[in-house]
Amino acid sequence: MKLREIYSSEKTTISFEIFPPDSEDKYQKLQEEISILNKYTPQFFSLTYGATGKKSHTYKNVLEKLKQSINTDIMPHITCINRSKEDIDEHISFLKTLKTENVLALRGDYPEDSNEICNYFCYANNLVEYIKSNTDFSIAVAGYPEGHLESKTIEDDIKNLKKKVEAGANAIFTQMFFENDKFFAYLEKLEKAKIQVPVIAGIMPIISSNQLEKIMPLARVTIPEKLKNKILQHFHDNDYIKQLGIEFTSKQCAELIENKVKGLHFFTLNKAFSTSKILDNIL
Fold this sequence. Notes:
Layout: H1 3-6, E1 13-18, H2 24-37, E2 44-47, H3 56-69, E3 73-79, H4 85-97, E4 102-106, H5 124-134, E5 138-143, H6 154-167, E6 171-176, H7 180-192, E7 199-203, H8 209-215, H9 225-233, H10 238-258, E8 263-267, H11 273-282
Helix pairs in contact: 5-6, 10-11
C-alpha cells in the first residue's frame, strides 16, 4: 500500500524504523525483535541506509531477507550524498526488483573521511525529483520540528522542506522530538507555508543515558527541563532511565493520538522492549 493511501485514514498509523545488522547473529536477534513489534500490526518497517553506502552490501542482503521473511511492508531509505548517479540508478533498479512501493529519500549525513560529498545530487529535493521521474514509488522525506542543524532558522528549513514536497514528496517523517508543543507549532508553520502532505511524528523512546549522549549532538532537539533533571539525577541507572522513557513517551504518544496525528514512526534502534511497552500503554 502506498503512502498516500496509508495516510488517508483518520486513524493514527504505527510504523517502525530499523537498521541493517552487521552480522548473522544480530540479524537473527533483529528477527526476534521484529516478531514482537509485528504484533502491533504496523503499516511498515523502514530500513535505514548509510550516508556513504559503505554498508550497501549488508543493506541489500538484509532488505532481501526481510522481504522474504516478514509479511509487513518495508520502506527502504535512499541517500544521495557522496553517491554517483550510476550507484543511485542501480539502487533504484534493485528496489524495483523487490516490488518496493514506498521509499524515504534523504540527503544523508556528510561522510567524515571524504572530500567528495556531492557527486551528483547535492540535496534531497534533487533526489526526490529524480526518483519521481523514474519510478512509481511513493516518496517520504524528512522534516525537523526544531529545524535542521545546518539551517539558520526554522523558516529556512521549511523553505527547503517545501522544495522536497514540490519535487514530489508524498509524506513527511519528522526527526525525534520530546516536546509536543514544538511539533504542533511546526504543523502550524507548515500549514502557513501551504505544505499539505501528511506529517508523521518521529518518536524515539529514551532507553539509556548513553543513547542520549550519542544522539543529541547529531540533532537539534530540546529535552524538557523536568525530564532532563530526572535523567541527570539517575544518569547511571539504566533501568530507571528505560522506565522513565517508557512513561514519558507513553504520555507523549497518547497526546499526539488525541490530537489526531497521522502517524507515529518509532525509531527502535533494533530493540522492541520499550516501544512494545509504550504501545501496550496507548493502544
